[in-house]
Amino acid sequence: MCTIQENLFSFLSAGSGELLNKEDIRGAVLLRINNNIKGYSSVRTSIINRYINCLNLNITPCVYNLGSFGASGDLVPLASIGSSILGIKPQSKLIHPNGNILPCLEVLKEFDMEPIKLKPKEGLALVNGTSVSTSIACNVFDEIQDLFSISLNVISLFLQSIKSNLHYFDKQIFEMKKHEGIFKICEFFDNSLKDSKLIYSEISSKKKEDSTNLIQDRYQWRCLPQFLGPIYEDLKTNIKRKLEIEMNAANDNPLIDPITGKVFHTGNFLGQHVSSAMDNLRYNVALLNKLIDVQISHVVYPNFSGNLPQSLVVNKNNINMGFTGLQIAASSICSKINYYSKPIANDFFSHCENFNQVINSESFNSSLLSRDQVNLFRNYISYAILFAVQAVELRAFMTNNSYNPINLLSKETAKFYEIVKNILNSKIGEPLVKDDKNMFYTDIINVLQRNIKLKSDIVTKIQNIKL
Q1: N or C: where does the chain have the smaller number of CB atoms within 10 Å of the terminal CB?
Q2: Helix or strand or coil: residue 421?
Q3: Is the CB of residue 198 less than 8 Å from the CB of residue 273?
């Protein structure tokens, strides 16, 4: 028994708060395996195999959401993982495959696994590193990829509801400015809208009877490639690439060359790349939210929407307020999304660990803040979907006296529209919302956000933008 190594798991048993999501914990176990199998960590295969066995058996450590600076890595969360999986601290808990939270030794015994005693270096190899922060960040990024694609599909419906112009997505625009993001956004909307009967193809064809009386649409429509392009580039390069490298890195300390035996006393455990990626992600989510909220505000106002009914009211014969309540609720979420956009990596200096950790990455906290913000944005985009569906149905009625827009929409957006209507059990040919009294919006918002989280058809069968 190596007392120094095992004592790490005693003084680091300091986590508190709420349990992390199970998928984040399991991801962290997987990434710690990936770190240690690279051969620079000096751990026995029996320890790596124990982590693998617990992962395969769906045995999950209890890890809390408070306790890491991301400085020497995720010391406290990773200690929670190691102490329970190896049976080092009897007080540690494991989540049984049946969902019950039990003492670790009880669960290990049931599955014929004995506690493992540590040898020199092995404790450090298990508690130093960015695995927990990176796991949360990767899971958050996985969802934001889905939400970004859904957002572009929502915007495609909005563009058709106001009878916008394909001209803004001409690929020659890319040739004049050269940014990859502009090209990718132009490519997406060109493909999404090219066969729509509600989109003009040239600026000169913009109808004079359009109530806006504008030859060019306002910035939230005309500048989409230039506004969304940098978001695409940040997601793909500044965020995705950093996370891909980090999740495949050797990041404990010290690291040892297995061939030469050379020891590297390193700072690879610092999670700065993760916090940089997550701070950047929250900034971009806030930008995307800002754009869609402006679009909603114009779609519900006749002077800016090409005479769509105010608040997207269908039945004007009764006392109906249409989407007024939805807009109030959706806008209230925007403030919180924007609040979360602030960076945390630069916010707090520390004198902890006897002035050793005077700089810290805040990767753990940044990843958790990103999770909170993305949860908000998932709810927000569910509101936006409702606005987009109702808007194109009203445009269809104004165009051909039918609330069925499918023959007017482009092929790609018609698919998205039909998926949403099916999820909401809303009959095609009838408006999503006709009378206030027949609606309980909370239910349909929750149905949409739940389908997004579970990666239903609304995620898997729509046009996606590849990051």
Answers
A1: N
A2: helix
A3: no
The number of domains in the chain is: 2
- Strand ranges inside 122-169, DSSP E: none
Identify the CATH number of the domain in which residue 399 sits. 1.20.200.10
Distances in Å between the Cα of 250 and the Cα atoms of 35, 39, 73, 74 are 5, 9, 12, 14
**How far apart, in whole angstroms, are the C-alpha atoms of residue 243 and residue 172?**
33
Domain boundary among 129, 147, 174: 129
Helices within 234-362 (DSSP H only)? 242-247, 272-299, 302-305, 324-339, 352-355
Give the H or E element holding residue 90.
none
Helix axes 131-161, 441-453, angle to 10 degrees: 130
Instruction: Give tens-digit pLDDT for 173-195.
Output: 888 888 999 999 999 999 999 99
CB atoms within 10 A of CB 146: 20
3-state secondary structure of 57: coil
Token pair recorded at residue 171: 């690929």
Q: Are residues 281 and 398 in the same domain?
A: yes
In angstroms, the first-to-last Cα distance of the chain is 48
Q: Which two tokens stand for residue 329?
A: 């609720």
Asked if 140 contacts 281 with a C-beta cutoff of 8 angstroms, the reply is yes
pLDDT of residue 209: 45
